[in-house]
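INTERNAL AUDIT FORM
Audit reference: QA-55
Scope: verify that the stored structure record matches its stored sequence.
Auditor: D.O.
Record contents follow.
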Amino acid sequence: MDFKVVGGNDGLETTLATIATATVIEAGDLVVLASGLIVKAGSTAASLAFAPYGSADGETKIEISKGNDFMLEGTGDGVFAVTYKGTEVDLSGSTNLTIDVTGGTTYKVLKIDASENAGTVDSADNIRVKINKPLI
């Protein structure tokens, strides 16, 4: 699991979408559209959705988030600093996605939480973000 829901509305609003053939998406993955089909997101994602339940090889549908009325918690590719609050950032990595707090920002698909719970200074764990550019 790359990300988990930690705040927002009481129920995560989802919709069913078609996944690419032979695609495995784990619960907690961020996903994108590729040729009209859902696949796991990568560092060049331009818009995102969250897959709360995942999907196994051979399945044809997956539940994905609608909008961004929820907060996610994930791991940074570097340690959190107070100055990161409210900044727009990218994803980093390919297999295990992290929040790109150390690199330049191109796609700005995530926004780091501005609250006191945004992260712990000098820790890469439990950084809170919101999807800045939702897929739906």
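Auditor finding: record pair retrieved intact. Residues 14 and 65 are 4 Å apart (CA to CA).
Action required: none
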